[in-house]
Amino acid sequence: KIRDAQMMKIPFMIIVGDKEMESRGVSLRLVNGEQKNGLTLEQALDLIANNIQKRELHPAWGEQLTEVSH
Description:
Blueprint: H1 2-7, E1 12-15, H2 18-23, E2 26-30, E3 35-39, H3 41-54
Antiparallel strand pairs: 1-2, 2-3
């Protein structure tokens, strides 16, 4: 499924596998192959929202997460 999403050039993929289920978190993967593991769902959604607002497809992983009003 991840490969299919990459081929379709889906910009953001939220991944929940066995490790994420154990830690109650998610991983976020970008179309360029970058991946950030161990995020809460809220953190992943904030990164996506911030990147959509900035019209970027690569998150600045080192930036502080900020709350985004929906």
